[in-house]
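Reviewer comment 2.1 asked that we show a complete input and output for one of the modelled complexes. We chose the magnesium ion case, as it is the one discussed in the main text.
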Amino acid sequence: SRRALLEAATGPGRTADGHPVPLLANVGGPADLELALRNGAEGVGLYRTEFLFLDRAEAPTAAEQAEAYRAVLEAFPDGKVVVRTLDAGADKPLAFLPPPGEEPNPALGVRGLRMFRIFPDIMSGQLGALAEAAAGLTAQVQVMAPMVATAHEAAWFAAACRTAGLREAGVMIEVPAAALRSDDLAAEVDFLSIGTNDLAQYTFAADRQLGTLSKLQNAWQPALLDMIAAAVGSHGKPCGVCGEAAADPAMACVLVGLGVTSLSMAAPALPAVRAALAGHTREQCRAAARAARAATTADQAREAARGMLPGLG
Ligand code: PEP
Ligand code: MG
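Response of the prediction step:
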């Protein structure tokens, strides 16, 4: 019917057999919200807050931060908004927050949560501004840290969130050590979110900014699929994906087959991913994931998965 077609085009994400898979948007700030809403995002799965901090000599004030965060939270009064704390360093250098020493390999240096370990006041400033922004609003606010490597770091971050009055804390899985020990990390937080861009970079030891190594920045690589399966683990906590991989319709089905619980992507990718999920059952997604992991190259993995997902073209 027309209603079913419309629902499939804009409604919540679900597989053909009705298994819900929330479809969320990656945003960099209030300017991205309209596109997210127009494409039927159910919420925000990755709010990259560092855009607010770019080209600054000093950190934005608490009031300035709270205003920016509030604009995003207000756009999804009934949805979830996952705010990522500052991911400074490496591919996202911030002038006011340079790494504390010379770094020959910035991607392996002080970045993401590691920066907060050295400058905890900047973390408490950001968490405080977020708590202030969230006060009185109805959106479900979740906060997560990037570049977490150990359960100890996850516990430290979760405690800081609680101190700031933020109830739901999670960590990104971007480092192989975190993926391999995801059950330990999950025990410390409320949810996990896999950043496939960095997880690929660190799994293959291949700089994500080097076009010459782009073959290794490919989520169909069977080793990355294994790494994602490790991140889903057996902890049972929600485990989403917010890297570029989630925007590929066939890969989105494979991720659901691997046990990923939500998908966040650049908003223009949402309709095609929504349609791909609506066209396949969870069992088909699982079969596609098994077929992809049984392959030995990225190309074979993609072909094998597509063979289990009829109608993807
Ligand atoms: C990722 O690493 O996959 C991710 C989502 O974060 P960013 O691309 O901002 O590093
Ligand atoms: Mg990342």
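The longest helix spans residues 120-134. We note this here for comparison with the apo prediction described in Section 3.2.
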